[in-house]
Amino acid sequence: MVYHIIMWNFKEEVAAEDKPKLKEAMAENLKGLVGKVPGLLTVDFVAEPEASSSHDIALVTTFEKVEDIKAYAVHPDHVHVADTYVRPYVCNRACLDCEI
Hints:
alpha+beta, four-stranded antiparallel beta sheet
């Protein structure tokens, strides 16, 4: 199993009162990719990280094999979700892929 962990900060222009609904939409749509994207096993969305965190939100996904992450990156359903619900609102992306 391979973990694909992504962290972001919200862009400065995103109003604090908009963040809860944006987080909800991100989580719902990212979790909805399970069963649509081959090799994607699980999706967890971290909407409320601990205060010591350097990022506002995170995505923790698991894949069958590392090659599945490359396919996920260009899969049309993932691209649609990312372009519609995530990328317009975030910055400072950090990524970690690993096997545990």
